[in-house]
Write the structure tokens for this entry.
Amino acid sequence: MVWGQLRPHRPGHQPGLRPGNAYYPLRTRHLQNPGINMKPAIGCIGLGLLGDALAERLLESGYSLSGFDLSAARLREFATHGGQPQSHWSEVVRQAQVLILSLPDGTVVDQVLQEMAAELKPPLAIIDTTTGDPQGAQARGEKLALMNVAYLDATVAGSSELARKGEAILLVGSREGDYLRMKPVFDTLAKSHFLLGAWGAGSKMKLVHNLALGLHRAVLAEALTLARGLGIQQELALEVLMASPAASAAMPTKGFKMIRREFTPQARLKQHLKDVHLILEAGARSGIALPLSDLHRKILDQLVKAGFGDFDNAAIIEAWNQSASKGN
């Protein structure tokens, strides 16, 4: 079979499969027999914005979760949702049938997996939601396959807030059998999920997604700044934009945050800067010039240096606000 394609759907076979290799979750039970819980025990390593949102989603759906994070505050928050916090990652791995990683970058993932190596045994499945270098994800999948441990490069398209609501999308690179085995978990986590190819394919698509989404936010910030400069009320300008052919999904989620300068993070600006570096590196390896992304990198870099790195991505509008302040 060709990567990126599944075998043709047969009526009554694999319910929920749609053209384009996406699964749209059906509201079916995970119980094969009444009273028997078929849900696997899940362990979560990394309970930041995304990890906590995914954990809460799974807990609300009846999964048993243990978790570890270096932050004691995050572990306490995890416990309030009903999770079982552990003082060391080894306890999480020992209890888990499925391990979810939500870490800052691929380097951290490699460090964690290296430390865990002796504890990683079949039939464990690792779902890695970290946005990182696609080459790193491919190498991880190959190494873990030699250990008979399933690895799914399953990046998340959507903010932590969307993930908490089950409205994000999962972009998966893995073996087909592992993908199908994890389908009940993916159905719980996301409104749809795509098998895009082998290990690394999910990370590649995440970079494509983040390029478009990040530039949508930058364009919105510049448009709202122009509206204000022309004397148009920004709320009205946003309403018009959302009703027009210029509309994008970034507008309802980030537009009002930009206007109100409400930057409580759903995803941090410094993390997106990291992603833009990955995008530019991927483009360079492929011989593709990405001039808009290069400009985007410069804007984000200036904002991080100005102290906005831990703010929400909507804070990109501060690049224009800062310029306007300097001009006055």
Q: What stands out?
A: The radius of gyration is 21 Å.
